[in-house]
Write a structure and sequence with these properties.
With 275 residues, the protein is an all-alpha fold. It is 75% helix and 0% strand.
């Protein structure tokens, strides 16, 4: 391939990436622009902003979504904390210790990732109803922990297995217990990969819609994804407040991502999985 052909092919790739990036950011642009408009401005100018900006849309939306965001913070924070604790302990045991049926038990857990979540939706609902957890925050927190720990354990097990055995031998020589080795060696070295797991599970639990919709009927306990759908029903013609609510709901995830960006990148490049 000559230089001219190579540049043409490279230009085509860049053009395709630019188009894909444009299509990706168009919905965010529409959401942000519309959030400052009245209904009349929305109909007269769909794509471009119009003056004056109506910041009161955010005040009206904030009063209605603040409780939903608080519920999402409680559910997401509790779920991700439980996922990290349980999955890291399980992964440490699978990676650093030998016991009977270790491989069979591990791959049995891994096989759970192959089962679509929609197939377990009805059994999970029946089980939660049997435990009288419907319409409580626990009906969200416990299934999220149960569902999120499998993939997290799979990732952490490979990372823990790649750590040098000499570190743990030295700790045992110094009299460290198993939990002390886990706490003072495995966890500090796995902070980057734990950051990746935390961000992935935050996105999953924060954005989930179906499970909170069918298990929470109390408006005071609804999460932000479900709460925004009812907000849309109440203000189906007021596009400005509706889009302002979506913008406010997206801010925590944006702030979290940029705050943890360095750790996220380090976690992605922390090393290959060791099976």
């Amino acid at each position: 391939m000559n230089l001219k052909s190579y540049r043409q092919a490279d230009l085509g790739k860049h053009l395709l990436l630019i188009i894909l990036a444009f299509l990706t950011y168009v919905p965010f642009w529409i959401m942000l622009v519309t959030s400052f408009k009245t209904l009349d401005q929305f109909y007269h100018s769909f794509w471009l902003p119009m003056f004056p900006f109506h910041f009161e849309n955010y005040l009206n939306a904030g009063k209605r979504v603040i409780n939903y965001i608080l519920n999402s913070f409680i559910v997401t924070g509790s779920s991700v904390t439980g996922i990290i604790i349980i999955s890291s302990l399980s992964a440490f045991a699978f990676a650093r210790y030998n016991f009977a049926v270790k491989s069979v038990l591990f791959y049995t857990f891994v096989c759970l990732m192959m089962i679509p979540g929609v197939l377990t939706l009805v059994p999970a609902f029946v089980w939660m109803k049997y435990l009288n957890l419907i319409n409580t925050r626990w009906v969200l927190i416990l299934p999220y922990i149960s569902g999120g720990q499998v993939f997290s354990m799979f990732i952490l097990r490979g990372f823990f297995a790649s750590l040098p055995e000499e570190l743990f031998e030295a700790a045992r020589v110094d009299g460290a217990s198993t939990l002390q080795s886990y706490r003072h060696i495995a966890i500090p070295l796995s902070k980057p990969i734990l950051s990746v797991i935390a961000i992935m599970n935050v996105l999953w639990t924060w954005n989930d819609y179906v499970w909170p919709l069918i298990t929470i009927a109390d408006d005071t306990k609804r999460t932000v994804t479900v709460g925004l759908s009812y907000f849309t029903t109440q203000f189906f013609t007021e596009y400005g407040p509706m889009m302002a609510g979506y913008t406010i709901a997206s801010l925590p995830l944006i702030i979290l991502f940029f705050a943890a960006l360095k750790h996220f990148i380090r976690g992605l490049t922390a090393g290959a999985l060791k099976m």
